């Protein structure tokens, strides 16, 4: 059975508060009594996209004794993300500002993280190059694939975050429907709340926010109500490739 830890929206650099909360989540994962297979982080890793923020992120993630894969979110800078976290000075053809698409191969599954960011914009979009890349990963896969990105492709019932969700999600749906037998689930960040949904006939799992929690309309009348006092959250995705079942458990960590 495959076990993935899923974290998102650490927003390192926004405050010492976010660093402490991320440290608590990293410590929780590092001290698990039994090993897990990998840690997936779905964006907004830094708050301003600055190099020193990514240096802090790199130091924190280095404490994890598991394979770790990270994608950018709308608060991230592709160039600094690539340079500091991935150790690469340039992206293909445009000085480091190309989409940061990555793949991690595990014995029981593959994780393909797409860069859904639009530099300078809060909403998301998957460009042609990214969709072509994803289609190629899915076509060549010899094991189930978890597809991840920052922006959610479906509304989550929170007006603020739904206004800045993935644009033209039908373009992604076309790829997923063509390769649906290969895809295990979609792993998403951005919303700062644990949620589950369906898209293109596939399960969608949204990670809680490490830095804060975005409240539902029923919980607060403000358009964008953010709770910084609720504890940081994470998810564990348990997947059995042979049986094809997926179960997600949500956790909060004392910070």
UniProtKB/TrEMBL annotation:
KW Hydrolase (keyword) present: yes
Annotated GO MF terms: hydrolase activity; metal ion binding
Record carries keyword Ribonucleoprotein: no
Domain Calcineurin-like phosphoesterase: 3-193
Keywords: Hydrolase, Iron, Metal-binding
PANTHER family: CYCLIC NUCLEOTIDE PHOSPHODIESTERASE CBUA0032-RELATED, PHOSPHOHYDROLASE
Family: Belongs to the cyclic nucleotide phosphodiesterase class-III family.
Name of the protein this chain belongs to: Metallophosphoesterase
């Amino acid at each position: 059975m495959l076990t993935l830890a899923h974290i998102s929206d650490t927003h390192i650099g926004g405050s010492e508060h976010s660093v402490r909360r991320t440290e608590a989540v990293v410590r929780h994962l590092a001290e698990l009594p039994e090993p897990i297979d990998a840690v997936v982080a779905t964006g907004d890793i830094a708050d301003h996209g600055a190099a020193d923020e990514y240096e802090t992120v790199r130091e924190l993630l280095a404490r994890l004794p598991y394979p770790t894969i990270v994608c950018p979110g709308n608060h991230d800078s592709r160039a600094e993300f690539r340079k500091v976290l991935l150790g690469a000075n340039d992206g293909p053809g445009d000085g480091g500002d190309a989409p940061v698409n990555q793949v991690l191969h595990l014995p029981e599954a593959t994780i393909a993280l797409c860069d859904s960011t639009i530099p300078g914009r809060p909403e998301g979009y998957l460009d042609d190059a990214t969709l072509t890349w994803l289609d190629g990963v899915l076509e060549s896969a010899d094991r189930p694939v978890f597809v991840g990105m920052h922006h959610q492709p479906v509304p989550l019932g929170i007006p603020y975050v739904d206004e800045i969700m993935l644009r033209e999600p039908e373009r992604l749906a076309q790829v997923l429907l063509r390769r649906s037998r290969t895809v295990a689930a979609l792993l998403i960040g951005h919303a700062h709340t644990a949620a589950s949904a369906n898209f293109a006939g596939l399960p969608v799992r949204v990670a809680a926010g490490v830095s804060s929690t975005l409240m539902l309309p029923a919980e607060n009348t403000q358009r964008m109500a953010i709770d910084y006092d609720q504890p940081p959250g994470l998810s564990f995705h348990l997947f059995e490739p042979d049986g094809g079942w997926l179960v997600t458990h949500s956790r909060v960590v004392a910070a």
